[in-house]
Amino acid sequence: MTLRRMMLGKRLEELREQAGVSREDVAAELDCTPGRVRHLESGRNLPTRPDVLVMCNMYDVPTDVRDALLETRSEAQQAGWWQTYRLPKWLASYVMLEADATLVRNWEVELIPGLLQTEQYARRIATIGDLNFTGAEVEKRVSARLRRQDRLTDQNNPLRLEALISEAAIQRCAAEPDIAPEQLNNLLKVGELPNVNIQIVPMNLGMHHAMAGGFALLAFPPDTWPQTGYQEYNVGGHLVDDPEAVNSLGKLFDALQERALTVPDSARLILQYIG
Fold this sequence. Notes:
Elements: H1 3-19, H2 23-30, H3 34-42, H4 49-58, H5 63-76, H6 89-98, E1 103-108, H7 119-129, H8 135-148, E2 160-166, H9 167-174, H10 180-190, E3 196-201, E4 215-219, E5 228-233, E6 236-240, H11 243-259, H12 263-274
Parallel strand pairs: 1-2, 2-3
Antiparallel strand pairs: 1-4, 4-5, 5-6
Helix pairs in contact: 1-3, 1-4, 1-5, 2-3, 4-5, 7-8, 10-12
């Protein structure tokens, strides 16, 4: 599944509901079951070009909207790069969205954010994160993580990243002398990109509202996909799409960002750990 497929399905569902047409009516026209129509609208299945034309005719869709839907369908036919890595479903769902996001706001308590990890750091995290991983699975996970980082330096569509990192994550990294210098210097290097802001939440800040765990918030171009949250844990992760929950995560991020060190002060703190 790709975001384009989900966007197409969501838009077709909106148009059907606006037209007051039932799924059963659409199924009768397409000579299929209502269940298939539901799968088309959820993005699970991609409609054929004739499917789209039939639905547009049923919903009295203007020509320009129909053409836009057909273009989206054409884009949805292209496989996402992440599909070749055979990532677990929970991670593939996040990477799919991240690939089309315009902004990622990421708060991490114990880890360097994935978009900022060096290859050595990513490999260490993958190795100790799941003791059941085979060597091949570790390399696959590391390769996918490095591939995701290409968006930060994309000349045509760079991803904006606002990263909040607990000083605890910096301390834990610094305690690994074989990987720390490269990783911490990478934070300084990537932090110089105009589309990247890195701020450290210092230990002397004390207790705060976002101590329970890290999360990410993804924003997308207007009228494409709603802001979506993501939370990860030891054995998986899940997307957060409930508007109230996403709004709460956004407020947590904003409040924590206000109390974090400035970007220049954060860079100076990282330098202290490099020594």
